[in-house]
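Protein Record: Sequence and Backbone Structure Tokens
======================================================

Structure line: whole-number tokens from a learned vocabulary of local backbone shapes, matched to residues.

Purpose: to set a sequence beside its fold so the mapping can be learned.

___
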Amino acid sequence: MGGDQGPATTVPAVAAFLRRHPHTRILLFGAARELPSLDCYGGRLTVVDCPQRLDADERPAQALRHKRESSLWRALAAVATGEAAACVSGGETGALMAMSIAAVGMLPGLVRPAICTLLPTAPGGRVGLLDLGANVDCDAELLHQFARMGAARLQVEGVANPRVALLNVGAEGGKGNRVVKAAAALLETDPSLRYTGFVEGDQVLLGAADVVVSDGFVGNVALKSIEGVARLLLARLRGSAAAIWRRRLLRPLLDSALSFLDPSQYNGASLLGLGGVVVKSHGAADAAGFGYALDVAHTEALGQLPERIAARLAVAGDAPAAG
């Protein structure tokens, strides 16, 4: 029940999720005393009381050593034991990363997860962007692993043969730094990937690729820039909404634009490379946004994402070495 608003966000999100998915159960980890009565879900919602709380400024190493009775650790432990199929948390990213590695473990050949999110594209599809900050310094082999993991993530969305591209300062073959060029050479010779070359930042949301790969530094800057532009456009549209709303024929257009631009509709960043499904919700997400993160986790669990990633990493029975 982490995040900025705690139960005020997670409880209504969970209630709506249970209505959307009538054959799913939820384990809600947190302080039971902070929760309203939740006995109306016929055994589909179980509250697990957790006496410890993670502080917002707590260092990940300290949390890992001393907070084994926190809601975050116990939720991840439930994934590790198979009691839960996935974990969704709105808690601090560093603590989630450290505890996920310790509790759930990494797939063979990997050391750290990559953070991936799905963003909307102009033709009405989705693009997976990774890494978004978990791995700031990457070598070519690590970018190669990101490509394989991202391709597996898009397959869960129903994209049979995802197009994979590297984010670069130019689309021409000679552009980029040493690491990006070396990564391109690896992707070009990987028969398991549909590698399409370089893409520039302005092509990410235009459907140029299904998976866009970068190191965590560049990926995080790209994502935050996209979110900033989206918020700017939302503010401008909402400022004009009163005038537009009076014109009934324009209402569907405005509603569609607001929905497409709202970052909360794409909440839920996946930690790829773990032995189980773990999804990070934005700490400031509202109930609807947290609900989207729950849906992401549900999709990944049903699609057996960790198993798909393991299979892609073990091409020809040889998992690539960690970078």
